[in-house]
Design brief:
This protein is mainly β. The chain has one helix and seven strands; from the N terminus they run E-E-E-E-H-E-E-E. The protein has one domain.
């Protein structure tokens, strides 16, 4: 079964999300009701259950890495994920996992 889970996004040039499974599909980036930047991803619940029970799972093989840049800043090498408005800023999220 799949479920959508929320993960916090840090407004930094580089940050990691260890809990986000490798093959989870990111479906949205935005601000949650508390005003925090987050991403939402479709995750197979079996991955979460295996990680909780055994400390590992096939879907969690490495840490996923991201970069957040503001409008007008240099775009990092990676895959564009989405953008969101926060206060007077527009932020852009890129996944840079495969980039050394």
């Amino acid at each position: 079964m799949k479920a959508i889970f929320k993960y916090p996004v840090q407004i930094q040039p580089r940050f990691e999300i260890e809990e986000l499974p490798q093959y989870a599909s990111i479906v949205r980036v935005g601000i949650d009701p508390k005003g925090n930047p987050c991403l939402w991803a479709e995750v197979f619940t079996e991955w979460i259950e295996a990680k909780e029970k055994y400390g590992t799972s096939k879907g969690v093989q490495h840490v996923r890495k991201f970069s957040v840049v503001g409008t007008g800043m240099e775009v990092p090498p990676g895959v564009y994920v989405g953008s969101w408005n926060q206060d007077v800023f527009v932020w852009h999220l890129y996944e840079v996992t495969a980039v050394s």
